[in-house]
Design brief:
The complex is a heterodimer of chains A (347) and B (391). Helices cover 74% and strands 3% of the residues of chain A. Chain A is an all-alpha fold. In chain A, strand 2 and strand 3 form a beta hairpin. In chain A, helix 9 packs across helix 11. The mean pLDDT of chain A is 92. The chains are: A mainly alpha (347), B alpha/beta (391). At the A-B interface, helix 3, helix 13 and helix 14 of A face helix 2, strand 2, helix 3 and helix 4 of B. Chain A: It is found in: Cell membrane. Chain A: GO terms for molecular function: branched-chain amino acid transmembrane transporter activity.
Chain lengths: 347, 391
């Protein structure tokens, strides 16, 4: 049972980590992240990088949809803006990757603000349709602005480099992706300890009441779009450094649905929810594949026969978790923590 | 028996035993040749992926039943990708981290382009795949990749060559989807048409997934082409185009490229399938010919119709196995550069009827194909031309 953690002031209440146990776990996690590329193979390294990129984008969407209540299906297109920006800069200007990523985030932010304009008049499904429309327009631009985007063939870019050392392998690109993901997660978590973050939550809970309280809807809704798109742009930039080939088909509408599913499964309006959702949506199909792979020695054609079953199981798992805990995986995690905090007493 | 004979007999037995042991040890020394595969067994391309998988499996089995590749067992390690690039790359990383992979089958153009730098960096393997993208037909840019058949530009070239022979100076229309796949041969087609003296008077681009083609058919009616080539589709909206064109009284002949040429798929077009033509790099499952033992073998292994994707997977594996065989025979290490040299050494290769003529690798592709036409009475695509080999 956890005792002695009384919150005596507002700062304690708003702290990201309120116990020493939590801080110790965070140190352990940081150590694990530092050691990981040295002990993992390329396959695990690849999956970890993919999960981290998806976490950044999912967190961005969570800021917009989970915390501000504005539904968007344009996250993949914003990632595309970031990816193309990085590729164009890397190919033509050869600027440092960190600057490229910042510019990619900025470019996606600007596009996000424009796309977010309809949010002042519409919300819910109507806004979702407006963002789909924006996504179609961006896709058209990617495919047809051939002189800049390479058209349907896309762009192939050189790898990121640090002091002349090229980061080619997943375990090398990891050293860009991991620190940026950590910084962006801390940024998102801290955002909701500020006036801006609280304004987002107020808008989500009841926008008219928020306006009455003095929150300017125009400014904060567009700010939410800008921040969310910034995350998507940086995620897209990381994606570009990771895969190094960008085509208009790299960022389909299904990808936006993937991120929306991730925040719903993980838990809307929770940073942890975004992380867990991205991990779940990226890793569960791979874990199911591994389980099918285990059958291969005794059942040679297991991959072919079980692949469709695997997809059904994945869909079933999503439905199961949503029925079992509609507030998402983050709530399941909180319940588990609560159990140990109160043990031996029951919640 | 004299003591001399006894000694000689024992010495012979010992020598034979030692020989067998050495032979067995030598056989055990022969490392497996691993063929990895990012295969779209689920997702939007699963209709082809399942066939490709079966084709690879059968080609691997036949290879191993015939003693493997110069004694090396060919081992196939597939992973499902759902036709997503990130999943394909994950599958590649997984397979290559668990096996010493020499040959690989990729599921898409995007995957081929994405993984090409890694193939070049590792220099370990040769890759074929489901993509016929013209861009990949460049040995300098993609030294470790090859196309198991003609590129899309070559496919259209084969059709245009047929048209030029059938009706010199014919008016040709080109309808393609507005995707990377659809746009691929457009410029090449225009150039080939011009070179062959054909009038490509109509080029139509349709939105991906678009089903309302009435505006496009009106353009077609105005241009009145003798032939229209569809590219970048599997089925829809080809039947809609043909139905509306027929209802307007157009006598145009409609043609397709590889992915819209599966016999069962064309049969699904219904009445408008009759007379539909197109290019196919391989023989069909049901093709009967005098010198086609491999087709007989396939039919003996699978007694129901196998798709054109099956033939593609089968042929890809044959070519990769032959490249590996040439490399082993030359006593070279099995790496990307040597395997590619082994592939390019393939000249007048008899595929046992999978392709009706001996084939050679040119550049990164095998630019050969044949024009087929659907016979509704037979419910089969039947040959409309001899094999056309592009130089």
């Amino acid at each position: 049972m956890r005792i002695g953690t009384a919150k005596e002031n507002y700062l304690h209440d708003a702290a990201l980590f309120d116990t020493n146990v939590q801080r110790a776990w965070m140190v352990a996690l940081a150590a694990a992240l530092l050691v990981l590329p040295f002990i993992s193979g390329q396959y695990i390294g690849y999956l970890v990088c993919l999960v981290l990129i998806n976490i950044v984008s999912t967190t961005g969407l969570n800021i917009l949809t989970g915390f501000t209540g504005l539904v968007s299906l344009g996250q993949a297109a914003f990632m595309g803006v970031g990816a193309y920006t990085v590729a164009i800069l890397e190919i033509n200007a050869g600027t440092p990757f960190l600057l490229n990523l910042l510019i990619a985030g900025g470019a996606a932010s600007l596009v996000g603000v424009v796309v977010g304009l309809p949010s002042l008049r519409v919300k819910g499904l109507y806004l979702a349709i407006a963002t789909i429309a924006a996504s179609v327009i961006l896709h058209f631009v990617f495919a047809n602005w051939t002189s800049v985007t390479g058209g349907v063939s896309g762009l192939t870019m050189p790898p990121a480099s640090i002091f002349g050392f090229e980061l080619v392998q997943p375990n090398q690109v990891y050293w860009i992706i991991m620190p940026i993901t950590v910084v962006m997660l801390f940024g998102a978590a801290n955002l909701f300890r500020t006036r801006i973050g609280r304004a987002f939550i107020a808008i989500r809970d009841r926008d008219i009441s928020a306006e009455v309280l003095g929150i300017r809807l125009l400014r904060y809704k567009l700010l939410s779009f800008a921040i969310s798109s910034f995350y998507a742009g940086v995620a897209g930039g990381l994606w570009a450094y990771f895969f190094r080939v960008i085509t208009p088909e790299s960022f389909p509408l299904m990808m936006s649905i993937f991120f929306l599913a991730a925040i719903i499964v993980g838990g809307m309006g929770s940073i942890l929810g975004g992380i867990l959702g991205a991990v779940f949506m990226t890793m569960v199909p791979e874990i199911l594949k591994m389980m099918v792979g285990v059958l291969s020695p005794i059942w040679p054609d297991a991959v072919a026969v079980m692949s469709p079953v695997r997809i059904i199981v994945f869909g079933g798992l999503i439905i199961f978790f949503l029925i079992f805990e509609p507030d998402g995986l983050a709530e399941i995690w909180r319940n588990i923590r609560r159990f140990f905090h109160l043990w031996p007493f029951r919640t | 028996m004299s003591i001399f004979h006894k000694i000689a007999k024992r010495a012979t037995a010992v020598a034979l035993g030692a020989g067998l042991m050495v032979g067995a040890a030598h056989a055990a020394d022969k490392k497996d040749i691993v063929l990895g595969g990012s295969i779209p067994l689920t997702g939007v391309f699963a209709f082809a992926g399942v066939g490709i998988h079966a084709g690879i499996q059968d080609a691997v089995k036949i290879t191993n039943d015939n003693g493997g590749i110069e004694g090396h067992k060919l081992v196939y390690v597939p992973e499902d990708t759902a036709y997503k690039v990130d999943a394909s790359v994950a599958a590649f990383n997984k397979i290559t981290s668990q096996h010493d992979v020499n040959l690989y089958y990729g599921d898409s153009t995007a995957f081929s382009k994405t993984i090409a730098p890694e193939l070049d960096r590792s220099g370990k393997m040769l890759m074929a795949g489901a993509s016929f993208a013209s861009e990949l037909d460049d040995p300098k840019k993609y030294p470790n990749i090859f196309i198991p058949g003609p590129s899309y530009t070559d496919m259209v070239g084969i059709l245009l060559e047929y048209i030029a022979k059938e009706k010199p100076g014919a008016k040709v229309g080109f309808v393609h989807s507005d995707t990377e796949f659809g746009r691929d041969p457009v410029e090449g087609a225009k150039a080939s048409a011009k070179a062959l003296g054909l009038d490509m008077n109509l080029v139509i681009s349709t939105a991906p997934g678009g089903v309302d083609v009435s505006t496009e058919v009106l353009k077609m009616r105005r241009a009145r082409p003798d032939f229209v080539i569809f590219h970048g589709y599997v089925l829809a909206p080809i039947p809609e185009f043909i139905t509306q064109a027929r209802s307007m009284g157009l006598k145009t002949k409609f043609m397709g490229t590889f992915w819209s040429m599966d016999n069962s798929m064309v049969g699904k077009m219904g009445d408008v399938a009759d007379g539909f033509m197109g290019v196919m790099p391989y023989n069909y499952y049901y093709t009967t010919a005098d010198n086609a033992p491999m087709l007989d073998k396939i039919r003996s292994m699978r007694n129901t119709y196998q798709s054109n994707a099956y033939m593609q997977g089968f042929f890809s594996t044959m070519m990769m196995a032959e490249a590996a065989r040439n490399t082993v025979k030359a006593g070279k290490e099995l790496n990307g550069a040597n395997l590619k040299a082994g592939l390019q050494a393939i000249k007048d290769f008899d595929t046992g009827g999978v392709i009706g003529v001996p084939v050679s690798v040119k550049g990164n592709s095998v630019p050969v194909g044949r024009v087929y036409q659907y016979d509704a009475a037979k419910k089969q695509m039947v040959a409309a031309s001899d094999w056309i080999n592009l130089d």
